[in-house]
Amino acid sequence: MDDLEAVAAAVRVARGVVVLTGAGVSAESGLPTFRGDGGLWRGHDPMRLATPEAFDLDPALVSEWYDLRRMAAEAAEPNAAHVAMAELERHVVAADGRFALLTQNVDRLHQRAGSERVVELHGSLLVWRDHRSGRRVTPEPTPFQTHPLPGPDGGWLRPDVVWFGEYLSEAALAAAASALTWCDLFLVVGTSAVVYPAAGLVGRAAAAGAVTVEVNVAATPAHVDHRLAGPAAVVLPRLVEAAFGNVA
Ligand code: BJW
């Protein structure tokens, strides 16, 4: 609790707040994490499915996995952690502070909870693109009838996400780099902090002088000033309440 009060005090005085989120934030919305207990999907390791090599080898399999996850994301509801982060943004911005939410999540639950300054580091599951031309389409929120689906330019449709070995978009990297120049409080929430370049952001924020805080149910390799142990959906509403009063 002492640490919660110390972090709440840092939140109150911060002029620039940056939050980095990962799959743990959506766990309580029923969406599985990558390295959690969920394990394999039909015998396949999610870490291997999230690669261009898997798509080249078996586009039908990868398309089906992502389409099931797309449907799960559409059906899921933002949880108290998403809501508290949106509330945090409103408080910081209302006090003329700066805010950015850098998310590795592809489920769009932050936006649905009301967060506005969101940078999707790993893209979005709700948008797909022709794997040859790159042209983007937003499919209807109903399951695909076949896998893979033909894209508009003769390729297959693939999710508009960032797979291992692929580059994050320049816009996302630039937004993250810019946020580190004005950030004085960096919160890292619900991520195992092992996938780069996102995992490197907390160290860069600390090197630039920001106070760093981790919210997670388990310890991670991230070096931070404060650790708030527990589910994000419990810890974040408490933190926002301790900093600003009741979460709406
Ligand atoms: C809770 C909770 C609750 C549970 N409350 N908490 C430097 C060093 C070494 C390697 C590299 C490097 N730089 C680049 C690399 C290669 C690679 C990489 O990082 N590899 C490492 C695994 C070693 N990175 C890349 O390839 C990246 N591209 C790149 O760098 O391009 C340049 C380049 C190319 C080639 C060579 C070198 C450089 C791209 C990374 C793309 C990652 N993509 C994925 C899939 C996205 C699409 C999809 O959704 O399917 O992104 S992989 C997957 O991991 C997904 C996630 O966003 C990402 C991070 O996972 P996350 O969110 O942290 O989830 P989990 O499951 O790992 O953790 C959940 C956490 O929540 C846990 O800590 C729990 O305890 C916690 N939790 N419930 C709070 N209720």
Please, what is the average pLDDT?
96
Oligomer: single chain
Number of helices: 10
CATH topology of the largest domain: Rossmann fold
Structural class: alpha/beta
Q: Any idea how many domains?
A: 2
CA radius of gyration is 18 Å
- By CATH, the architecture of the largest domain is named 3-Layer(aba) Sandwich
Give the names of the bound compounds.
ligand BJW
Secondary structure: number of strands = 9
Report strand %. Answer: 15-25%
Q: Which labels suit this protein?
A:
2 domains, 248 residues, six-stranded parallel β-sheet, elongated, Rossmann fold, 10 helices
In words, what does this structure look like?
This protein has 248 residues and is α/β, with parallel strands linked by helices. The chain has two domains: 4-31 and 77-122 and 167-244, 3-Layer(aba) Sandwich (Rossmann fold); 46-75 and 128-161, no CATH class. The chain is 39% helix and 18% strand. Helix 7 links the parallel strand 2 and strand 3 (118-120). Helix 1 packs across helix 10 (232-244). It is elongated, with a radius of gyration of 18 Å. The mean pLDDT is 96. The structure holds ligand BJW. Ligand BJW binds next to helix 2. Residues 22-24, 27-28, 33-36, 50, 104, 106, 122, 161-167, 190-192, 194-197, 216-218, 220, 231-232 line the site of ligand BJW.
Concise synopsis of the structure shown:
39% of the residues lie in helices and 18% in strands. The chain has 248 residues and is of the alpha/beta class.
